[in-house]
What does this fold into?
Amino acid sequence: MYLYIMSRPHSGSTILDILLGSSDSVASCGEIIMGMERGMETWTCSCGEILADCPVWKTVRQRIVEDPGTDWDELVEASVRQGHKTHLPSTFLASPSGTGERDRFHQRLRDGTMKLADAIRSVTGRKVVLDSSKLPSRGLFALKFLPDARLIHIVRDPRNVLASHYWRFHIGDTYLAQRRPWRGPLAPLAFVEAALMWFFGNLLFEIIGRIDPKRVVHIRYEDLRDDPASVIRRLSRELGLDFEDVIERIDRGETFDTGHMMGGNPVRTEGKVAFDPGKEKARERPAFLSWIAIGVCWPLMLRYGYSLRSDRRAGNGAKKTA
It folds into this structure.
């Protein structure tokens, strides 16, 4: 199975990846597209090694290089290009059985992605490849072109997503500060943008999921945070996978290794992660973030079961450990 997590940033995809990746049957890859885009020679695996020196990714690439029908650099270029948001229309229109150039591009990428997945399974000894690249284009591609793909859509209350951006904004640790000239009195507009991206991004995920609803599972981050065992049990049931080993580790309060994740939230580099939200203190978020989130996102908030009344607190379920 090719298991894909799609979500907006700051929505819990990395911690979900780490939890599921602790199963003996799942090879947690993190954000594959991010790792490919940053480069094997310069980007660091969650194990601490440069990807080119990581025992897993070094061997995976070698398997692809040795395959006479697949070119690693071509696979990287095609994967990164297809994953970009501008490629969404092309992927929507492409057909797995078509004969046009657009169809052939996606078919070649399908063949290369399946070989990559096979190499990951062979190297790790695990039957499920987990990709948390989050990108809608990648999720759409997986659903249309990978017959064994299943998608998990994880959504988080937009008020807490905006709060996560807010707390990281001043140190530049968010794409809002890194890619947009929001400064001084214009800073609140950055959070209007984040709210709009949350709304339209999750609306797009809903549209993608309607292509084959039986292969898509929708979960909320808050449910994962508050009762992780129940959510993992539901995923086990709906995906037809055995995650009992993950549930047992959650019940025992164990820490989780971050393994060999190509890309994702910086927490992946901490080595071990504890998932114990009961010990965490929620921080109070500024009221204006709630106003923006509700004003922009209320239709989908209601759809996902979020009350429009708020206690103005936001928490995070992931903790790094020594």
Observations:
- The longest strand covers residues 128-134.
